Amino acid sequence: MLSSPRVSSGSLQRWALVLLAGVCFAVLLSLAVGSRxxxxxxxxxxxxxxxxxxxxxxxxxxxxxxxxxGVLAGLALGMAGALMQGxxxxxxxxxxxxGVNAGATFAVAVVVFGFGVQSAAVTxxxxxxxxxVVTTLVFLLGLRAMRGGALVMLAVLGTTLAAxxxxxxxxxxxxxxxxxxxxxxxxxxxxxxxxxELLLPVSALIAVxxxxxxxxxxxxxxxxxxxxxxxxxxxxxxxxxxxGIASITLLAGPATAMCGPIAFLGLVAPHVAxxxxxxxxxxxxxxxxxxxxxxxxxxxxxxxxxxxxxxLQVGIVMAVVGAPVLLALTxxxxxxxx
Length: 338
Description:
Helix 3 packs parallel to helix 8 and helix 5 (120-141) packs antiparallel against helix 6. The protein has helices at residues 9-32, 40-48, 54-88, 100-115, 120-141, 152-175, 177-186, 199-223, 227-232, 237-259, 265-277, 281-305, 314-331. The protein is built from 13 helices and no strands. The chain is globular.
């Protein structure tokens, strides 16, 4: 049963404007800061005009694709985390709970070990396929447990299968040095040096996932009251659960395939959003996506300037930020009730 007071729609609308402004600032920061710092005015000229300069070339050819990928991945992982926590009623859930990360990693290992393919584009396609297959398998195995436990059984199956796939992946890494080299680069989680030619198909899949997530947010608010109450309000519980699983797959799978596993983002963003929206999933899910964009882009920008002349990958920065948040959540006497 929900116990937190509702937040007025006017307040939520103001917060939406604040978050959108935060996203715009994070995008500008991502485009301006790097090995060379470029003034915001030149960034805007490079993006919106045909100015020809060295700085404009750096922005359009290197930083803009990286920033677009950050926007897509942050939005997708933030929303997927909110869906996972809402459906499982577990405040510590994130997209990896369905085996998304483990499935993607194992598929990459199989492609490199079995076929010797090390192309970045093939790696992304393999990771996307692995994430989708594992999530679908978890769903099929737990299909009969979609009532009562609020997908707890699916979470258990996902965790178990993830452990199995992690062990198999470790075995492949130990048997083949090429597999180790590819996974060592891919597993760290990064926005740089990715196959940006795949941004269009990846963004299409994520767009479908966003549409499903926004549609699922209405029924998820009712499900938070309990399945019996939700049914009495006209919510189709089983259809809502299936839609949620499909949305998580389409959001987390492509994002993980492109960037590699990025820990904690799907955990942190929904908790920040919940402090603003309380339990209204209609606002919580999109707010989690916007916060995910801000956190990921700021973390990526910090990584660029914290280890000059090199840089830290965003997966490392997110681990440094997210681990203390997870510890703080687990040490609280009472986690946020879902």
